[in-house]
Amino acid sequence: MANHPIRDLIEAADRAITGEDFDALLDFYADDAVLIVAPGRIARGKAEISKAFVAIAAHFDHSIAVSQGRMEIIESGGTALVIMETLLDKTGGNGGQSRETRRATYVFRKDDAGRWLCAIDNSYGTDILDATRGDGASPTG
Amino acid sequence: MANHPIRDLIEAADRAITGEDFDALLDFYADDAVLIVAPGRIARGKAEISKAFVAIAAHFDHSIAVSQGRMEIIESGGTALVIMETLLDKTGGNGGQSRETRRATYVFRKDDAGRWLCAIDNSYGTDILDATRGDGASPTG
């Protein structure tokens, strides 16, 4: 069975993150996309998202590899909710490996040309509630 | 500070669930909305969603009350991801109370008139990955 097209996009985007190919990575995002950099910290639009990924790569000392675990894609018209395990593999300075698994939530939207674009990228999933005020206001950066 | 309009909608929808006012409840959903009835079981469109809520009310012996805990709303253009604690209070036949807290994920979309409608209703949040194949295919009902 062919993959859902959004699964292919996420795999390609995660390869771009791993390879630090941020120009390719930005193609997966809508112009007004929102990235949760950390609970309470938002990047909005491609310029801020690009800066955030450059900072994240530096923060992890350019040693992070991103891949996908289990994934569910729930579509309604031109909108899709993705629930997914994101696997973050880090290589330490001493060559040691560590793996962190997050449960992410992404929202994709189809543009007028029928192309799926990421509109909301929240790699923290429902854990975001543990770190924020939780009063319904959007976290601000 | 005024509530986010989506918070007001969710509060009103949860009151409609508690009061079993399913006609009012359906007004909150887009025509092509998807409801995760249980992991792996989907209701699609207002007719199926209505039937699902009637069955859910009967399943809980008409004794369920739904309210909201912590909530985050992340907006990108006309799309919003809601991460929220859903509190389910059940009254048993002997008058005993029990509370279940779920971490839900909802996607809302603005229609052409600027009204927010629920497009995807997944009250299981990221827990949906525990119960499904996780290969990227949408669960089917």
Description:
Two copies of one chain form a homodimer. Chain A contains three helices and six strands; from the N terminus they run ααββαββββ. Chain A has helices at about 5-20, 20-25, 45-60, and strands spanning about 30-40, 40-45, 65-75, 80-90, 95-110, 115-120. The longest helix of chain A has 14 residues, at about 5-20. The N and C termini of chain A lie far apart (about 40 Å). The model of chain A is unreliable at about 135-140 (pLDDT under 50). At the A-B interface, strand 1, strand 3, strand 4, strand 5 and strand 6 of A face strand 1, strand 3, strand 4, strand 5 and strand 6 of B.
Number of helices of chain A: 3
Tell me what portion of residues of chain A adopts beta-strand conformation. 35-45%
Using CB atoms under 8 Å apart, which protein chain pair has the greatest interface?
Answer: A-B, 44 and 46 residues
Strand line-up in the sheet with most strands of chain A: 2-1-6-5-4-3
Structural class of chain A: alpha+beta
CATH architecture of chain A: Roll
Helicity of chain A, as a percent range: 10-25%
**What is the C-alpha radius of gyration of chain A, as a whole number of Å?**
15 Å
Q: Please trace the helix and strand order of chain A, writing H or E for each element.
A: HHEEHEEEE
Query: Within the CATH hierarchy, at the fold level, what is the topology of chain A?
Result: Nuclear Transport Factor 2, Chain: A
Averaged pLDDT of chain A: 91
CATH class of chain A: Alpha Beta
Number of strands of chain A: 6
Shape label of chain A: globular
